[in-house]
Amino acid sequence: MEEKQPKKVLSEQERLELAAQLDKDLDAFISSLEKKRYTEGWPEDRWEEEMAKHPFFMQKSPEPGEELSPLMEGLQQLKYDPQENTEQELADTYKEDGKFYMQHRKFRMAVLSYTEALRYKVGDAAYKAILYNNRSAANYMLKNYRTSLQDAQKALELNPDYDKARWRAAQCASALDRFELCVKLCDTILQRDPTNTAAVEMRKACLAKKATQQRDSRKEARQEREKQERWDRLVTELKKRMVKFEERKALDDERFLRPRLAPLEDFMVSCDENGVLSWPVVFCYPEFQTTDFQQQLLETTTMQDVLEQLFEEPLECDKAGLYRAKKVNVYYENRILGLAYLVDKSKTIREIVAERTFVAFQGTLTFYILVKGSKQEESFITQTRIPLKIEY
User: Fold this and answer.
1) Could you report the average pLDDT of every consecutive run of 10 residues in the chain (392 residues)?
2) What is the pTM assigned to this prediction?
3) CA–CA distance, 386 with 338 (Å, rounded to integer)
4) Which part of the chain is the Cns1/TTC4 wheel domain (predicted)?
5) Residue 278 sits in the same domain as residue 204
């Protein structure tokens, strides 16, 4: 029998030297292998992006229109393939999708999912009622109150005992100011649950809003009636005075009587309860190319009185102090005839407007003030005016 040789015991130094030699041999072996580029996995510079697209690692659902990875497309086809799923399974799948989107506040996607689920004619009335109610909830969050109300009412048709759908319908009716419907729904809710404080508060708020709306409607109707009465009275007085306007349909629509100049645009000719007119008036100073405005000049005022008021304080541009009531003449233009006419300052505004040659423009009276006997007056009188071609 062969005798066993005793096993040699290595010292600590020898062990370290042997380990170093083995590491060196392994490195030499790896270096001698053929080097090949790794092409099977994700690129180093885009591995995080690619991982995010992987169905097992993605943290959010793909957005509509976003390109899907082949694996994701395959899983979706398997999930929604009518060849692999029954109609009930597909309806359930879309129903769960809708729930998922609702939880993540993707309300538009939830609406689409519940709509897809409703396309399948499966499930009993209670099942369909849930789908309609869920879609109603999604539309409500999108503030599509009319559509939400329709879905909630459809859910109630399918399941008259569906309290969630009834409450959603009441919320929509309130948002749409359909007060009678809202009160009716709240009454039904309270018949079934008299302790429902939310329904009590909504019913109370709805009745208050209804009362306010009715009050506002009556006020609006009264204001509209009064506005029409003022307009009719104004038209009557203008016709009585035979006032002429450049605009052919000036008395058919108040828009033609509204002044266009900024200082006067809020002061249309008006008629008080005694039948007295107040006119917006422009006073032009051709010498200085500037203007004065009277927003509500009573027709009972004489032109002399108007001038006295205008020149109570000297015009800033009148350095010579020539513009005084007794030193000026006043004219108006008839643009249809292309002529200027001197105003009798002793006449009232009503008498001047009643003259056969006076024509108002854009609901405004326009007068020109010049110093008597001045070159500016002579130039104003003799200037060439091209008549407007207007047919009455």
Assistant:
1) 56 76 77 62 60 57 59 56 80 94 95 94 92 97 97 97 97 96 96 96 95 94 94 95 91 91 94 95 96 96 97 91 95 95 97 96 96 96 87 57
2) 0.55
3) 5
4) 273-381
5) no
In the prediction, which pLDDT does 258 show? Answer: 93
Which stretches of 267-392 are assigned E, i.e. beta strand? Answer: 270-271, 277-285, 290-298, 328-334, 339-342, 365-371
- Is residue 303 within 8 Å of residue 343, measured between CB atoms? yes
Cα separation, 306 vs 294, whole angstroms: 9
Do residues 148 and 258 both lie within one domain?
no
| pLDDT score recorded for residue 187 | 96
Cβ-in-10-Å burial (0-12, 13-18, 19+) of 258 comes to: middle
Candidates 348, 364, 106; CA nearest to 257 is: 364
Domain encompassing residue 138: 52-59+67-208
Contacts of 294 (CB under 8 A, 6+ apart): 279, 280, 281, 283, 306
Residue ending a domain, among 172, 189, 208, is 208
Q: CA-CA distance, 129 to 123, in Å (whole number)?
A: 10
Q: 10 Å Cβ neighbour count for 364?
A: 21
Per the domain annotation, does 249 fall within a domain? no
Please tell me whether residues 269 and 204 are part of one structural domain: no
Q: Which residue carries 């030193």 as its tokens?
A: 327
Q: Which residues on neighbouring strands pair with residue 21, listed in sequence order?
A: none
Q: What is the pLDDT of residue 47?
A: 58
pLDDT at residue 23 in the model: 78
Q: Is residue 77 part of a domain?
A: yes
Write out the two tokens for 11. Answer: 């010292």
- Phi then psi for residue 322, to 5 deg, are -90, -20
Contacts with 224 (C-beta within 8 Å, 6 or more apart), sequence order = none
The predicted structure's pLDDT at residue 122: 86
Q: Is 389 part of any domain?
A: no
* pLDDT attached to residue 22: 77
